[in-house]
C-alpha cells in the first residue's frame, strides 16, 4: 500500500488500528507502518510446523499431573490487598515501606535524617562548605579586623580608651569587685 498518498489523519487511524504510536511527523508515521507491515509479512512467511493429532496425545501423556491445591496456595501468597495495608498500624506501614524501597536506616531525629539525605545525594554539608570558602577567601578573626581597621583609618585615640577605662572602673565599684 502506498502510504505517501494518505493524509496524516488517515495514517494515525491506521496506526491506532494496529496498536502503534500515533505521535510524530508524517514520514515517521509512514516508517512505523512500513516496519509493521514488514514484521507482519515476515511472520506470515515463516513455515508453521503442522503437528499430527496422534503425536499431541503422546506428548500430553508424558506431562505429570499437577496438584491444583498447591497452585491455588501460591496465588494467594502473592496477592496483597490494599485493605490489609490500611488496617495495619503506622509502625507496620513504615516497616513495609522500608522493605519495599530497601532502606534499613532507622533515623528518628530530623537533623539526622537531613544529614543522611545529604550524604545519600552527595551534597556537601554546610560545615564543609564553610571550610572550603574559608580556604578560598581566608578567615578574618576579630584581631585581624581591628588591625585592618587601624591600617585603614589610623590608630584609635586615647580619649576613647580613657572613657572606656572609666566605665570599667565604675562598673567594678558598683558591683563590688574592687
TrEMBL record:
Keywords: Phosphoprotein. It comes from the Eukaryota. SUPFAM superfamilies: SAP domain. One of its GO terms (cellular component) is nucleus. InterPro entries: SAP_dom, SAP_dom_sf, SAP_domain_ribonucleoprotein. Residues 3-37 form the SAP domain. GO terms for biological process: poly(A)+ mRNA export from nucleus. Belongs to the SAP domain-containing ribonucleoprotein family. This is SAP domain-containing protein. It comes from Cryptosporidium andersoni.
Amino acid at each position: 500500500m502506498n502510504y505517501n498518498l494518505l493524509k496524516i489523519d488517515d495514517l494515525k487511524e491506521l496506526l491506532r488500528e494496529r496498536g502503534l504510536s500515533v505521535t510524530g511527523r508524517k514520514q515517521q508515521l509512514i516508517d512505523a507502518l512500513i516496519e509493521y507491515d514488514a514484521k507482519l509479512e515476515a511472520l506470515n512467511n515463516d513455515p508453521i510446523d503442522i503437528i499430527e493429532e496422534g503425536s499431541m496425545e503422546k506428548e500430553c501423556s508424558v506431562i505429570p499431573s499437577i496438584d491444583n491445591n498447591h497452585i491455588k496456595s501460591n496465588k494467594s501468597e502473592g496477592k496483597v490487598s490494599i485493605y490489609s495495608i490500611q488496617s495495619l498500624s503506622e509502625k507496620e506501614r513504615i516497616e513495609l515501606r522500608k522493605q519495599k524501597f530497601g532502606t534499613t536506616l532507622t533515623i528518628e531525629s530530623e537533623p539526622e535524617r537531613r544529614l543522611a539525605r545529604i550524604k545519600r545525594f552527595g551534597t556537601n554539608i554546610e560545615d564543609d562548605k564553610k571550610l572550603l570558602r574559608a580556604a578560598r577567601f581566608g578567615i578574618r578573626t576579630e584581631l585581624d579586623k581591628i588591625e585592618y581597621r587601624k591600617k585603614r583609618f589610623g590608630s584609635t585615640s586615647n580619649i576613647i580608651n580613657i572613657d572606656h577605662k572609666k566605665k570599667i572602673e565604675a562598673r567594678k565599684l558598683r558591683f563590688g569587685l574592687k
